[in-house]
């Protein structure tokens, strides 16, 4: 790849989250870092797909054809989870570097195949955990290293979002554990809140290491296969306990956060906002917002100049052990209608689990699972070990 002109990029997956990736590519195109050489999807672009005003962009329905005709040096894959491995292999076979949307793959075994294929190809693959491109992660790690809040007791994470029946009706794989005999694992923990797990592990420096143990507390209010209201507890390779509590059935959305609990204070990271707040007794909270590195720009710099990738596949191994535990663990337990508020609005069914926002917060603060906090719909499930 030349060090001069813009790098030709192919975007695979234009709709849904693909629009977010498109919007992140356009500033790089305007800056001359990349050139949008084409888009590939089963569904053609439509008005409102953010392509207007950027010149003609070729559209393709077939990935091999798109790769041959565009000569894309970087392929951005924003496709269903169970397609991540085969489509990455196709891009590598055509000599294209890859930005692969999270979660990395649908199984831990597929991660091993992906790493082997990337290594054998001599090409680069970056995983789209955008939060790991934030300087906020290093800022938190530096605060911990300097003893800003004393010894770390654990990390708690909380996430409260709103997803309706329309979210699960948008694609055949949405909310599925398996589809047509293939693993999908599209649950709250493994997809919408995947960043919480990956970022928590990055804060401890254990993103590439298997956790010592994983306890799952998975439930569903929506009539789906996967979890929409979930908690998990793991212990990192270094022994740090991490508890993540999430729901897609909240009364309203709030920024997800990770809290480093220290013996002399706490550090909060709102990872979607790149915002870090330090709380210490007797002092006013101190907040800083940190810059975030675009992962495609980072991939281009890696290819051109050999700079280390921020999120190579191997760096997601810890997260993938969590996904594997969810994949092989018990099916999520249903939350009874007596514990829900259900209504229809704008053609979609909304579901809120009673008291769930407070419960998620308590779990993150106390490093406890839902069943340990006495949630009336939570029952004991066995521990799963990687």
UniProtKB/TrEMBL annotation:
Residue ranges annotated for the GFO/IDH/MocA-like oxidoreductase domain, each copy included: 139-268
Molecular-function GO terms, alphabetical: nucleotide binding; oxidoreductase activity
UniProt cross-references to Pfam families, sorted A to Z: GFO_IDH_MocA, GFO_IDH_MocA_C3
Sorted UniProt keywords: Oxidoreductase
Highest taxon of source: Bacteria
Boundaries of every Gfo/Idh/MocA-like oxidoreductase N-terminal domain copy: 12-129
Xref: PANTHER family: BCDNA.GH03377 (PTHR43818:SF11)
Name this polypeptide is given: Predicted dehydrogenase
Species assigned in the record: Nocardiopsis flavescens
């Amino acid at each position: 790849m030349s060090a001069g002109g813009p790098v030709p990029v192919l975007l695979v997956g234009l709709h849904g989250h693909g629009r977010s990736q498109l919007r992140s590519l356009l500033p790089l195109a305007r800056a001359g870092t990349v050139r949008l050489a084409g888009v590939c999807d089963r569904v053609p672009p439509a008005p409102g797909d953010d392509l207007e005003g950027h010149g003609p962009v070729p559209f393709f329905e077939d990935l091999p054809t798109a790769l041959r005709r565009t000569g894309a040096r970087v392929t951005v894959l924003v496709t269903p989870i169970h397609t991540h491995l085969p489509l990455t292999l196709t891009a590598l076979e055509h000599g294209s570097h890859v930005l692969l949307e999270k979660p990395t793959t649908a199984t831990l075994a597929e991660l091993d195949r992906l790493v082997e294929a990337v290594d054998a190809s001599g090409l680069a693959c970056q995983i789209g955990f955008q939060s790991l491109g934030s300087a906020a992660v290093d800022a938190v790690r530096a605060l911990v290293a300097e003893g800003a809040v004393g010894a770390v007791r654990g990390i708690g994470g909380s996430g409260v979002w709103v997803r309706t029946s329309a979210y699960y009706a948008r694609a055949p794989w949405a909310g599925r554990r398996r589809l047509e005999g293939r693993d999908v694992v599209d649950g709250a923990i493994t997809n919408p809140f995947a960043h919480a797990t990956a970022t928590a592990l990055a804060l401890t420096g254990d993103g590439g290491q298997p956790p010592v143990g994983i306890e799952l507390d998975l439930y569903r209010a929506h009539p789906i296969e996967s979890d929409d209201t979930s908690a998990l507890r793991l212990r990192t390779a270094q022994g740090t306990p991490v508890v993540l509590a999430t729901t897609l059935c909240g009364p309203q959305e709030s920024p997800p956060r990770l809290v480093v609990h220290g013996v002399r204070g706490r550090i909060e990271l709102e990872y979607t906002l790149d915002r870090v707040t330090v709380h210490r007794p007797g002092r006013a909270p101190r907040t800083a917002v940190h810059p975030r590195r675009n992962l495609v720009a980072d991939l281009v710099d890696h290819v051109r100049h050999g700079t280390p990738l921020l999120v190579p596949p191997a760096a997601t191994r810890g997260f993938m052990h969590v996904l594997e535990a969810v994949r092989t663990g018990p099916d999520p337990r249903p939350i009874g209608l007596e514990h829900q508020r259900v209504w229809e609005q704008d053609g979609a069914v909304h579901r809120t689990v009673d008291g769930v926002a407070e419960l998620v917060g308590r779990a993150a603060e106390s490093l406890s699972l839902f069943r340990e906090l006495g949630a009336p719909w939570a029952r004991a499930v066995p521990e799963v070990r990687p």
